[in-house]
Amino acid sequence: MKKEIFLCAINNILSGTCNEDCKFCTQSVRYHADIERYNYKSIDTIVQEAKKAKSYGALGYCLVTAGKGLDDKKVDFVARTAQAIKAEVENLNLIACNGTASVEQLRYLKEHGIDSYNHNLETSEAYYPSICTTHNWSERYETCQNAKSVGLQLCSGGIFGMGESAEDRTSLLNAIASLNPESTPLNFYHPNKALPIKTRNISQDEAVIIVQRARKLLGDDKLLMVAGGRELLFDGSEELMFEAGANAMVIGNYLTTVGDAPQKDKKMLERLGYGVATTCHE
Ligand code: SF4
Questions:
Q1: Dist CA 240 CA 234 (whole Å)
Q2: pTM of the model
Q3: How far apart are CA 75 and CA 108, in angstroms?
C-alpha cells in the first residue's frame, strides 16, 4: 500500500509580539527581526484560511499565538476561533499552540473544539538556559503534561541545529518520547541575521539520523513531522526524510518564514509515490 503523508498547516493568529528572549525566535521583540507583526487576526479571515488549507489536503490546522503563554483574552480568542472553524470546516484536527498553559485553560480549549495542544520542548533541559533565560524548560514539560491530563492530544517536538551537542539531541529525543506525544514536529533551525544564534550546526545526514531515532523512540503509530527547516535541509531529497520515518509535514508558510507552495509539495509527494492521508484515525 502507498505510504500516506499527513499534512498540517499553521496559522499565526497573533504574530511577533513576545517579550521572552528565545534566541531562535524572530517573534521576540528583543531582536528586532524584520517580520510581519500584528495583533489578533479576524476570526472570519482565519476561517477562510482554514478552508483553503483544507482544500490543499491539510488534516491538521494549528492556531499559533506569539507570547510566553495563555491569558484570559487569548484563551477566549482561541476558543471562539476554534468554534468558528469547527462550524464551517469538517474533518480538520484543530491544534492550539499558545505557549505555557494551565490545566484550566487547556480544559477550556478542549471544551471549545481544540483537539490537540502543541508545545515543543525545543531543546534538552541542560541546553535550554543557553537559548532562553526568561523561562525554564521544566515549565515547558509541565504544560505538555497538563495538555495530556485534560485529554488533549499532545504534539511536542523540538528544534535541532541551534548549537546543541550530540548529548543534547539524545536528551531531547528521550524527553519527547517520555511524554508519549501523538505527534512530534522536528524543526531544523533557520538562521536569521537578527537572531543571536547565527548559524545552523546540523547537516542533512545528521537530520536523517534524528528522524530515524525519533521514529524508533516514538513508535510506528505516531505522527512524525518534519516541520521548520525542511526546505533548507531536504529540498529535492524529501524521500530521505520519509524513508527515515517521517510521515507528516507542514504545508504552506511557517510562523515567520515562507514555505514551499502547497501545490509544489503535492507534486513532490506524487513524484515520490506517496499519497495524502485523508483521515487522522485509520
Ligand atoms: S516564548 Fe514563544 S513567541 Fe516568545 S520568544 Fe519564545 S518561542 Fe518566540
A1: 8
A2: 0.95
A3: 8
